[in-house]
Amino acid sequence: MAQVTELALDERTLAADRIDHWIGGRAVPASSGRSGPVYNPATGRVAREVGFASTDDVDAAVRAAREALPAWRATSLARRTEILFRMRNAIESHRDELARVVSAEHGKVESDAWGEVSRGLENLEFACGIQHLLKGGFSEQASTGIDVYQIRQPLGVVAGITPFNFPAMVPLWMLSNAIACGNTFVLKPSEKDPSASMLMAHLFQEAGLPEGVFNVVQGDRVAVDRILEHPDIAAVSFVGSTPIARYVYEHATAAGKRCQALAGAKNHMVVLPDADIDMAADAAVSAGYGSAGERCMAIATVVAVGDIADPLIEAIQARIPGVRVGPGSDPSSQMGPLITREHRDRVAGYLDSARTQGATVVADGRQHELYRSDGFFLGVSLIDNVTTSMDCYRDEIFGPVLTVVRVPTYADAVRLINENPWGNGTAIFTRDGGAARQFQFDVTVGMVGINVPIPVPVGYYSFGGWKSSLFGDLHMYGPEGVQFYTRAKVVTSRWPDPGSSKVDLGFPRTR
Ligand code: NAD
Predict the structure, then answer these.
(1) Model confidence band, residue 2 (pLDDT cutoffs 50, 70, 90)
(2) In which residue ranges of the chain is CATH 3.40.309.10 found?
(3) Does residue 197 line the site of ligand 1, with CB under 6 A?
(4) Residue 16: which pLDDT band, with cuts at 50, 70 and 90?
């Protein structure tokens, strides 16, 4: 196993002027001549360039993955598990470095990035139990002298296309199970924060993962389109915005690939009149503004039921001045900048449209002093008296803007959520166990929190929304991830005495 070099990997990564691909166990420059800027969102300056893949680059990565496939597929479960353990340990022992790289390019505060890496580790830990997860069923004597059993086999070369908001965790959601199940993997990370994927590629190689099992192609739509049409890619996992998820799902499935495409969100947090107001306000502020609202499980809308609305909004408002906005590298910061200036300005635009459309802007993040800096900062914003026809309710804002919809009853709250086109996550805050249980029964959303504002399932369950938050049948990671990355084969077997053999043209039936 190669040793970690003297110069810390994050120092090497963050000092690089250019990020390229990882193909067949080494860094490979992009051949297209095209590239894009990678910003430091806290300063607004371009930190490095990322080379964009041509179709030839994607083909080279797929070739490397295809060449690595026979040996990796044939590698024993014992040996695969040993390598997965080492991959898990490599990420854990470089968790700080990986978090620094994530924070530097995404902008989230380092402690949050550390949390992201920790949640991603859960997926590698789950995959370390792959021997158990791949055990098929066995039916002895299904018919007289006949046994039937099921095995699960890898799909082949599989690809993952990931968003900017979790540059370490979402790739780990996919690659952990994919590789553990015996597939080889091509990752196309977000072009906005590409370095985490390269750091992980280095770490996996040092952990002993054979060349070509994990490959990275950097890039944009050109790379995505080639992945979607490539005849040697068996399956595509995607996480990103709803329009692109729909596009990926339609094109991947039209090309005969298995596809799961996790999409956008508008997560509602219902606060019932009996809830603890301070606890609900703490949760709304944490889940609405954490990671600058750039989480698919962020709370976007507080649904205040009945007469709790006024005291709840007062409690949220009282907490806003205490949210420390600043660069992710400053340990005192609680919320960093947004990913790009363009996105920051788009988010801020919802404050104007909300006002014009009749809502009450209680806090306007543009008043924060860092809004006028070169970084992509926006302070936290709170909009009250929002209705379902307003842009700030209808669109996924994906920024530190909390909207409040007031409804008279529990039934109105559930109707609001169930009529929303998205169904990723939702939460209810109440002290009434019966009401919470009814909510869990009623709501048409894939992940539900009861007094938990960001209910991201632990690694041994699976992650996925309903409605326009997911295209495909299977959720990501956990047991459904194993199902996604394998296909079942059922074997019917008998070992009769050849003397008993005879011709029988009837349809075989059990006896
Ligand atoms: P995005 O859709 O812009 O990008 C996702 C991926 O698609 C990236 O790799 C990007 O390079 C690629 N892409 C972008 N435009 C493309 C195009 N025109 N054609 C082909 N490929 C294209 O998403 P984002 O801005 O990186 O991430 C934020 C979005 O992701 C939000 O909508 C958020 O809700 C969603 N998200 C969802 C989940 C979930 O689990 N449901 C998790 C994280 C993020």
Answers:
(1) very low
(2) 267-450
(3) no
(4) confident
- Ranges for all domains in the chain classified under CATH 3.40.605.10: 12-263+469-490
Look at residue 244 and tell me whether its pLDDT is greater than 70. yes
> How confident is the model over 418-423, as a mean pLDDT?
98
Query: Across the chain, what does the average pLDDT equal?
Result: 96
Question: What is the predicted pLDDT for the residue at 6?
Answer: 56
Distance 477 CA to ligand 1 centre (A): 18
* Tokens encoding 189: 């990370």
The catalytic residue among 128, 181, 259, 296 is 296
Give just the sign of the alpha carbon dihedral 446, 452, 456, 462: negative
- This prediction has a pTM of 0.97
User: Which residue's CA lies nearest to atom 31 of ligand 1?
Assistant: 241
pLDDT greater than 50 at residue 1: no
Per-residue pLDDT band at 7 (split at 50, 70, 90) = low
For residue 15, the model assigns a pLDDT of 80
Residue 38, H or E segment: strand 35-40
Confirm or reject: Cβ of 237 under 6 Å from ligand 1: no
**Nearest CA residue ID for atom 17, ligand 1:** 221
Tell me, using a 6 A CB cutoff, whether residue 396 lines ligand 1. yes
CA 163 – CA 189 distance, rounded (Å): 7
267-450: which CATH topology? Aldehyde Dehydrogenase; Chain A, domain 2 (3.40.309)
DSSP string for 200-254: HHHHHHHTTPPTTSEEE---SHHHHHHHHH-TTEEEEEEES-HHHHHHHHHHHHH
pLDDT at 72 over 80: yes
φ and ψ at 323, to 5 degrees? Answer: -80, 115
CATH-assigned architecture of domain 12-263+469-490: 3-Layer(aba) Sandwich (3.40)
Any catalytic annotation for residue 181? no
Question: Rounded mean pLDDT of 75-83?
Answer: 98
Q: How far is the CA of 294 from the centre of ligand 1 (A)?
A: 12
Please determine, for residue 347, whether its predicted confidence score (pLDDT) is greater than 60: yes
CB 471 within 8 A of CB 249: yes
Average pLDDT over every residue of 317-322: 98
Distance CA 231, CA 58 (A): 12
Nearest CA to ligand 1 atom 34: 264
Closest C-alpha to ligand 1, atom 16:
221
> Mutate which of 19, 241, 266 to test ligand 1's pocket (most atoms within 8 Å of Cβ)?
241
Torsional sign, CA 280, 286, 287, 293 = positive
Dihedral angle, C-alpha 365, 369, 374, 377, nearest 10 °: -30
